[in-house]
Amino acid sequence: MAKGHTARLRYKYPLPIHPIDDLPDLIPQNPLSWAYWTYCYLTKVNYLKFRIPVEIIGQKYVHILVRNSYHMQYLWENGFFGTGQFSRSEPTWKNRTLERLNIGLTNTRINTLSNNTIPETLQLEEITKRRRMLRIEFKQQREKLEKQLLQLRKNNGSIEEEKELLEKEREMLRDFKAKQSLIDIEHSFNNNERLEDFELIDTNGNIIELEALELLPVEAIFLTFSLPVLNISVQELCSRLVPKPVQNIKYDDIQLLIRKYIVYHHYRSRGWCVRSGIKFGCEYLLYKRGPPFQHAEFCVLVLDAEESQDYTWYSSIARVIGGARKSLVLCYVHNELPEKNILQLWKSGNFTELFSKFNVGEIVYKRWVPGKNRD
Amino acid sequence: MDEKLELVRNNLVHYQQWEDVRVSPASFQWEGENIQLIIGKPSNSEREECVLPVEYSQYQESLLTTNLIDATFTNLVSEEFERIVLAIIGDDGTVVFYYITRGTSTI
Amino acid sequence: MSCIDIEIGPSGHVGHVHSLEAARRLRTSHGVVGVLSGTLPAAAQQNCFLYLPLVLPHEEIAWLLRRCDDGDGDGKEKVRLVRRQVTENGSQLQEVSRKQAVEQARRDEKNIRFHMTYDNNSGITHSKELDPQYLRECQCTRCEVYTALKEGDASRVVAAGSRFGAQYTLYPGDPLRVHATMLVLPAVKNNQPWDVRALLSIARLATTVRKTVLLPSTSDTKTRATSDDTSIDRRQSHDTQNHVRFYRLEWTGFG
C-alpha cells in the first residue's frame, strides 16, 4: 500500500517535461493575486532549467555516462532512463554500499532530491542475491538426486526405489518453495569490510560515487533530439556514436542505429516506458508505467521491413520470451527514401527530416498450441 | 587500463564482491581492440576464474568469433583453466557473465 | 542378415522408415530415434501420439550408412536405400545404390527450386531463390556436426532441437528414460561474428530448462563444399579430418 503511494508520488512525471501544475491559487476579485499569478505563469517553464552534462568514453564502442548523483536520480525518476552500472536497473549502488559498510546513515535510504529519509525496504539487489543463493543450493541437491536416479535406471532398479527418490525430490521442492516466500527482511549486520573497500572511501570518510548511470545510445539521442535534456548537440552525439570521419560513413554503419532509434522514439512517443531488453534476448522491453510498478508486458525485436529469418530464429526467441511470460512484438521499420538520400541527410545533420521518413509496423508473435489454447 | 577493463574490474570488485581481482599483464591486439584478461576469485567458490571483457553494441557487429576465443585460450590462458568467463558489456552499462569452455573436437 | 530399408525422398533431404522392426532396431542398437510422422491407427483423431513412418534427417541417414559400411555396431546390420517406383499396379519400393541416390538427388534439384517468400509492407511478395550449393554446404556442415556428436558416444541420441530453438537436443540414452542434457546450436564458422543477442537468449533459456548449450564451430576453409559429393556418397571419416570443435556456453548465475 504505502509502497504504491510513495512510488506514484516519486515517479509522477513519465518524461522530463513537467506540465505547469503548481501555479498559485487565483482569487478573481483580488488584483494583487492576478499580478502574482501572471508573474508566475510567465516565468515558469516546463522543461529542465539546466542541461545535464554527459561524459562519453570509448572509441569504437562508446559509453554515455552521467556521473552526478542528482542528475542520475532525475533521469531515473522522470522516465526511467539509463541503468546503473553496478545495479540491476535503478542506480542504488551507493546506498547499498553505505549499508554494507555501515557508514553514515544506517538503516535508511537517502533521497537526495527531497532530503527526506524513507524507512528501509530491502533493496532489489539483496532480494535477488538471496533468492539466487537459495536456488543454487536447491539445484545442487537436486542434481545429486538426479544422478542417483540415473544410476538406478541404468542398473535397472526396482520401481519402489525410484518412487522413494522421487518422493524425496518432491519434498525438497516443497521446502524450497516455502523458503523462497519468506526471504528475511532483517539485515545481517556483518561488518564485512574488505581490503578492496578502502579504495572507496575518500579523505573525509565518505564513499565516492563510483557508479555512473549509463544511457543507451538511443536514449541519449532521444534526450537531445526530441527533448532538450542533455548538454550536448545531436550532431556531436551522432559523430561520437559513429566514430568515422563524415566522408567515410557508409549506409551500413548507420542503418542499424537509425532503425533502433526510430522504434525507440515510436514507443516513447506513445507513452510506453522503453528499456533495454538484453536480459531477455530482445532489443527493448515495454513497460506501461515503469519497472517499479509492473513487469514489462512486451518484448520488442527490431527488424527491417525486407528482412526474413528462418523458422528456428523466431521460435528460439519466442520460446525464451514465452518462458518469461511476455509477448513478443516484431517491429518492422520501412524506409521511404532510398539509401543514398538517408546517408545524405545523416551527413548533413538534418535529423528531423531523416527520422520522419520511416514507417513502423508491428506484429505480435505468440505460440499457439491447439491442445492448450482451446479456450 | 582501458575503459572496458576498468568497468569490468570495478563490477567484479564492488558489485559481484570478488576477491583478489587483478588485471593480467599479457595482452594482444585483435582487429584494433586490446584483448586482456582479469583474474579473480568469485565470492562463493574456491577456484579462481579468468574473465575476458568484450563489448557488445546494439548497432555494430560483434568482435566475438571462435577464432578470437581460440586465440585467447592459446595466448593468455594457462593450461590449468578449462573455461573462462566471458564478461559481455552491454551498451546500457550492465555486464552479463557467461562461462565458455575450451574448444574440443568431441564431447 | 537383417536389413533396414530407408526410403529416400526427393532430393535426398529426408528418409522414411516404414518397418516397425527396423525402427525398433534403429532405436536400440544405433541410438537413432527420428520423428514419427504418421497417424496412429488406434487413436486417429489426435496428433500428440503418432505412428510410422519414421522420418530421418539427411545427416542421420549418412551416418547410418557409414557406420554399417565401416562395420561398426554389431556388424549384423545392413542399411539399404530404397526409392518408391510408381507402376500401373501401384507403387513399390526398389533398392537403389548410393550412387544412384546421389544422381537422382542431383536431377531432382534441377527440377525443384527452393524459395523463401515474404511480404513487405506494401503488399508485394518477394521471393528469394536459395542456391542449391548453399543448401549442400549446410548439409555438409550438419553431417560433420552430427558425426562428431555421435563419435563421442554412439549410444547418445541426437534428436531434433526445434522445440528449444536449437538444432539438436542430446540425450545420454533413450529419450523415454532419461532427460536431455545438452542443446546444440547451428554451427558457426570460425571467423563468423557471433549473434551475441541470440546466443545470450538461448543460453538463458537453457539455464531455465537445465541444459548446457553447445556451440559447434567449423573451419572456414572452402575445401569441403566445392567437392561435388553429398555426404551419403563420401567415405568421410577417413579422408577429411573432423573440422568441428565444440564450445560449451552457460550462464554463470551472477550478473
UniProtKB/TrEMBL annotation, chain A:
Q: Where is the active site?
A: 287, 295, 326
What is the top-level taxon of the source organism? Eukaryota
Q: Write one Pfam family the protein is assigned to.
A: tRNA_int_endo
Q: Gene3D superfamilies, alphabetically?
A: 3.40.1350.10
Any GO BP annotation: tRNA-type intron splice site recognition and cleavage
EC number assigned by the record = 4.6.1.16
What keywords are annotated for this sequence in UniProt? Coiled coil, Lyase, tRNA processing
Question: Where do the tRNA intron endonuclease catalytic domain residues begin and end?
Answer: 258-336
Q: Which residues form a coiled coil?
A: 124-179
Example GO molecular function: nucleic acid binding
GO cellular component terms given for this protein: mitochondrial outer membrane; tRNA-intron endonuclease complex
Q: How does it assemble?
A: Heterotetramer composed of SEN2, SEN15, SEN34 and SEN54. Interacts directly with SEN54.
Name the protein family: Belongs to the tRNA-intron endonuclease family.
What is the recorded name of this protein? tRNA-splicing endonuclease subunit Sen2
What taxonomic classification does the UniProt entry list for its organism?
A: Eukaryota, Fungi, Dikarya, Ascomycota, Saccharomycotina
UniProtKB/TrEMBL annotation, chain B:
An example Gene Ontology cellular component term from the record?
Answer: tRNA-intron endonuclease complex
Q: tRNA-splicing endonuclease subunit Sen15 domain: which residues?
A: 7-104
Q: Which key words are in the record?
A: tRNA processing
- Keyword field contains NAD: no
Stored Pfam families: Sen15 (PF09631)
Instruction: Please give the InterPro entries that the UniProt record associates with this protein.
Output: tRNA-endonuc_su_Sen15, tRNA_endonuc-like_dom_sf, tRNA_intron_Endo_cat-like_sf
Q: Does the keyword tRNA processing apply?
A: yes
Please name the GO terms that the record assigns under molecular function: nucleic acid binding; tRNA-intron lyase activity
Please provide the Gene Ontology terms (biological process) for this protein. tRNA-type intron splice site recognition and cleavage
Domain of life assignment: Eukaryota
| Similarity section | Belongs to the SEN15 family.
Name listed for the protein in its UniProt record: tRNA-splicing endonuclease subunit Sen15 domain-containing protein
Which species is this UniProt entry from?
Henningerozyma blattae (strain ATCC 34711 / CBS 6284 / DSM 70876 / NBRC 10599 / NRRL Y-10934 / UCD 77-7)
TrEMBL record, chain C:
Any one of the GO CC terms = tRNA-intron endonuclease complex
Molecular function, one GO term:
nucleic acid binding
Entry superkingdom: Eukaryota
Locate the TSEN34 N-terminal domain: which residues?
8-66
Q: Which keywords has UniProt assigned to this entry?
A: Lyase, tRNA processing
Where is each tRNA intron endonuclease catalytic domain found?
Answer: 141-221
Catalytic residues in the record: 171, 179, 211
Q: Name one Pfam family in it.
A: TSEN34_N
Class in the EC hierarchy, top level: lyase
From the UniProt annotation, give the residues forming the signal peptide.
none
Q: What is its EC number?
A: 4.6.1.16
Q: Name one GO biological process term.
A: tRNA-type intron splice site recognition and cleavage
* Family of this protein: Belongs to the tRNA-intron endonuclease family.
Q: What does this protein do?
A: Constitutes one of the two catalytic subunit of the tRNA-splicing endonuclease complex, a complex responsible for identification and cleavage of the splice sites in pre-tRNA. It cleaves pre-tRNA at the 5'- and 3'-splice sites to release the intron. The products are an intron and two tRNA half-molecules bearing 2',3'-cyclic phosphate and 5'-OH termini. There are no conserved sequences at the splice sites, but the intron is invariably located at the same site in the gene, placing the splice sites an invariant distance from the constant structural features of the tRNA body.
Q: Which protein is depicted?
A: tRNA-splicing endonuclease subunit Sen34
